[in-house]
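Task: complex structure prediction.
Instruction: return structure tokens for all chains below.
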Amino acid sequence: MVWIAGANGTGSSASITLSSIPQTFTHLQLRGIVRSAGVSSQIYTRLNNDGASNYATHYMYGDGTGVSAGVGGAPTTVNFFGSMPASTDTANAYGSFIIDLLDYTNVNKYKTTRNTYGFDLNGSGQVWFSSSVWMNTAAVTSMTFLANTSFTTATRVDLYGITSSQVTGA
Amino acid sequence: MGVYELSGAGSVKTGRTLYTSMNAGNMYGAMVPISSTTLSSNGAIVFDNIPQTFQDLFIVIQGRSTKSATTDVLDIVYNGDFSANYSGTRLYGNGTSALSDRSTSAGAFFADYFLVGNSATAGIFSSNSISILNYANTSTFKTTLVRSAADQNGSGGTSLAVGLYRSTSGISRISLFPDATAAFLAGTSITLYGIRAVSS
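Output:
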């Protein structure tokens, strides 16, 4: 696994984009922490800045009292994977996510993301498994995180490449 | 019962493998092993003096408790802070139902309720992966994701849990232990990795 790039929120923008993703890895993993600088907000992703209705999402989540499962639109314009802590919630609390995107350079397959996400606010919270298909065979060259309102400056997203070749380390 | 203290600095403690690279500066891979051990006797596990130079931490445990029951609870405490600063939300399945529960204002993060106990069939160990993102950030509370699995051939479960540690301190010490008076059983293995966010 090799770090490729990272970015922080600006406090005023509702998007974070990691672009010019090298086409030299086998898989990608995105890891980060998120919080909205505004009121309650959901978090979404897009690939290659494609805003067309090319995404379909399904999910299962627990909120501490019950479990829900469903679809986030089929198709829709974004990959949806949860709500995030906002300005009205416990200060300094962030959601954490890990997203796996396999075989992202393959031009013969639609791309599937596997999302693991959760946040806790000491009395409320959610934890999510979700997956989304991007119905496009293009290689993935950029990934954008979107919110209904802006991301805080401590919001952080890091992109890693997983290689089939040997690297020094694990 | 002992405590396996796996230190990132200072003198060598019992039962650890000290990797030559203990900081983020001299390996190309993003996932760097910091410390690892397999317990030779029953005990708790503590990682101390964790370098603050990585972006995330990742822990892999294959564990079993000495508790005389089929399951136990895996607890995590950061920085030696046993005050009521931990809470968590869990999604889990037990073979018949999908369920969710939570803990609030606890003295530890209850990361896994399917940790295999010592009344289970011999040789079965739980599998846990623990991701502590942005652990060195001093302006945010720390959110931990824990993926757990244990099957006991007729019982068992799998879960995803999220834990909140309400402190903005960087995490330099991680204590892991089963609930109550139990310990990890000898043979439990654990590795702490740092995940780097530098390109060379």
